[in-house]
Design goal:
By secondary structure, this protein is α/β, with parallel strands linked by helices. It has helices spanning 2-27, 32-41, 48-53, 68-84, 101-110, 120-123, 142-149, 152-159, 203-212, 224-229, 241-244, 271-275, 279-313, 325-331, 333-341, 343-361, and strands at 55-60, 88-93, 115-119, 167-182, 196-199, 215-218, 235-238, 254-270, 318-321. Helix 2 crosses helix 4 and helix 4 (68-84) runs antiparallel to helix 13. The protein binds alpha-D-glucopyranuronic acid.
Length: 363
């Protein structure tokens, strides 16, 4: 009996210890906003009747709960519920729970869910303007890319161009620069010969990979880890967070900064839902979206640095700085080809070139 009590006490201490460790862990690092907003995520409502009157707003996200986009969306949820909490409850579904991104875009189109965060490559097949972001080496620097995304004349035109498809983009999230990572080092385009590299499920991504000289293997994001682990593919291309947040650094130990794309992710809303909101409600949803971008971008800056450190020190990933020129040469002819094949992006391309030129002329 005494032994049993002793065992219980030990177990109690152990559980208590674990709780303390978890609490401290949750408070550390970039994601400090996570836990306070996360508590709100599960906020209990006071009465069941009020609950049943509420419209549940569902958001699908491919990323995990520690990702900057999830943290941005928690700010979105909070902002909406603080102002319209008697009418709306925002629920965020991370980790592709509601389906891989392309499927979730379809569900948003039909109104089965209300919002989805989707990379522009995933939107290409629904609205061809989004192909502009798949153009390799469209931007010469992250600053150039961010300046464009902060330009509302440009974003407004893109956001409003998908009404026919049944959805409207509310805001963008930073998704950094895309680079190769693989089981073996890629230092020059010739190293890609004979390699099988995962690409997003978009025709432009497939073409780009072929132009680089690798075999393109399109698949959804959630399948990449196992595909690399089992040797079905040799590598993939993405930002640094894929190494840590999605654990790809466990199976791919070389990350090459060749920076072939700089792309945003989009918060896409079902158009009928948005049009059904009152003027005041619509304004609040739009303000919430703008706030979520601000939060996401701050978190992004911080998490990218952290991801690099973790990947290097804890996962043994080597980051390779390479000469971009040979990589650019391989794929630059694609730019012209894409413009000729897709008139929807020609004007946007001209706009970007003009903006880049103006930026260069600035003293
Ligand atoms: C990034 C991006 C996602 C995209 C994913 C992918 O994580 O943020 O939107 O789906 O890459 O490569 O599929």
């Amino acid at each position: 009996m005494r032994q049993w009590r002793h065992f219980c006490r030990v177990r109690l201490f152990f559980i208590f210890g674990m709780i303390v460790v978890l609490l401290v862990g949750a408070m550390a690092g970039c994601g400090k906003k996570q836990d306070d907003v996360a508590q709100n995520n599960g906020k209990a409502e006071s009465s069941e009747r009020a609950e049943s009157r509420k419209r549940i707003v569902r958001i699908s996200l491919g990323q995990s709960e520690s990702h900057p986009q999830y943290i941005g969306l928690l700010a979105f949820k909070d902002y909406v519920e603080e102002r319209l909490g008697d009418r709306y409850e925002v629920q965020i579904f991370p980790n592709e729970i509601l389906g891989a991104t392309q499927r979730a875009v379809e569900l948003t189109q039909t109104g089965a869910i209300d919002f989805v965060v989707a990379g522009t490559a995933n939107l290409e097949t629904f609205a061809d303007v989004y192909e502009i972001f798949s153009m390799p080496y469209l931007f010469d620097s992250p600053e150039e890319y961010r300046a464009l995304m902060e330009d509302e004349t440009f974003t407004k035109r893109i956001y409003e161009s998908t009404d026919e498809a049944g959805f409207r983009v509310l805001t963008w999230y930073d998704a950094g620069t895309r680079n190769f990572y693989a089981r073996k080092p890629i230092e020059k385009p010739e190293d890609l010969k004979g390699m099988k590299i995962r690409v997003q499920q978009s025709p432009a991504s497939v073409k780009m990979m072929q132009a680089f000289g690798a075999a393109a293997s399109p698949m959804s994001f959630g399948e990449v880890y196992t595909a690399i682990q089992q040797g079905v593919i040799d590598g993939a291309e993405n930002n640094e967070l894929a190494l840590t947040n999605n654990k790809h650094g466990e199976v791919a130990k070389y990350f090459t900064y060749n920076m072939h794309q700089m792309v945003p992710d989009m918060l896409v809303g079902n158009l009928k839902f948005l049009n059904g909101l009152s003027e005041e409600e619509r304004r609040i949803f739009e303000e919430a979206a703008a706030l979520s971008t601000q939060v996401e971008r701050e978190e992004w800056e911080c998490q990218v640095e952290e991801a690099k450190n973790t990947a290097m020190k804890e996962m043994g990933v080597t980051f390779l700085e390479v000469d971009l020129e040979p990589f650019r040469e391989k794929v630059m002819p694609l730019q012209q080809e894409m413009i000729e094949e897709n008139p929807a992006i020609a004007e946007l391309y001209q706009y970007i070139q003009k903006k880049k030129k103006m930026g260069q002329e600035k003293p």
